[in-house]
Amino acid sequence: MKVLDLQCAGGHVFEGWFASEDDFLAQCENSMVQCPVCGDASVQKKLSAPRLNLSHARSDVSSEMEVMHAPEHQAAITAAWMEMARKIVAHTQDVGDHFAEEARKMHYGEIKDRPIRGKTSVDEARALVEEGIEVVPLILPPSMKETLQ
């Protein structure tokens, strides 16, 4: 089993597990390897090395900044964001292009309140907010809209 550090053209860093290098290359050729955040199939391997535990620790500010921008921290942030997106998808109803209409109906008591998600324009979202309807813009990755394998 090969565990590879990958990065999409959008700069998202993630991990992929493959049976072999040939398996990774074959999946890439067939656009089967996609960024879990944005769905981009332009994926490249990043250089990776085993973790080394050194006996001395650096304590200057620049080394702390390097740690915060290390790939493993970026991966943890991406993983947390993906977990949040999964929970939103699991606990909301997708109303598609009818989001503004459904939100208004709930706000004005025409239908029962329920957690929804969907699509609307920026202008329509702004109008909802001006009416006192709370909305949160959230771009879900394409992988959240399909069954994950």
Please give the count of helices.
5
User: Could you tell me how far the N terminus lies from the C terminus, measured between alpha carbons in angstroms?
Assistant: 17 Å
Poorly predicted runs are none
H/E element order: EEHEHHEHEH
Radius of gyration: 21 Å
What is the SS-derived class?
Answer: alpha+beta
Mass-distribution shape:
elongated
The major β-sheet equals:
3 strands, antiparallel
Overall number of domains: 2
Number of strands: 5
Give the mean pLDDT.
80
Helix content: 25-40%
Quickly list its features.
single chain, 149 residues, alpha+beta, 2 domains, three-stranded antiparallel β-sheet, two-stranded parallel sheet, 5 helices, 13% strand, elongated
Architecture overview:
It is a single chain. The protein contains 5 helices and 5 strands; from the N terminus they run E-E-H-E-H-H-E-H-E-H. It folds into 2 domains: 2-47 and 63-87, no CATH class; 92-135, no CATH class. The strands form 2 sheets. Strands 2-1-3 form a 3-stranded antiparallel beta sheet. It has a two-stranded parallel sheet with strand order 4-5. With 149 residues, it is α+β, with helices and mostly antiparallel strands. The chain starts with a strand and ends in a 19-residue tail after the last helix.
